[in-house]
Amino acid sequence: MAIQRNICFTCGKGVQFGNNVSHANNKTRRTWKPNLQVARVVVDGKIEKVKVCTKCLNAGKVQRAPRGQSVA
Hints:
Layout: E1 16-21, E2 27-32, E3 36-43, E4 46-53, H1 54-59
Antiparallel strand pairs: 1-2, 3-4
């Protein structure tokens, strides 16, 4: 499975859209991107590099792969 762009592997969190609102109430479009990190994770017994948000990493929702083993 290829690394997806701006989407968390475990929870599916992605880019959100909204407005910047100035003091004069001018509105311009903007995006909020999730804090994604590339992690080596064990998936179905294989080691893969995936993008995972820091919330999932801190919560322990993914099992990081041990060091010294190659990526399949």
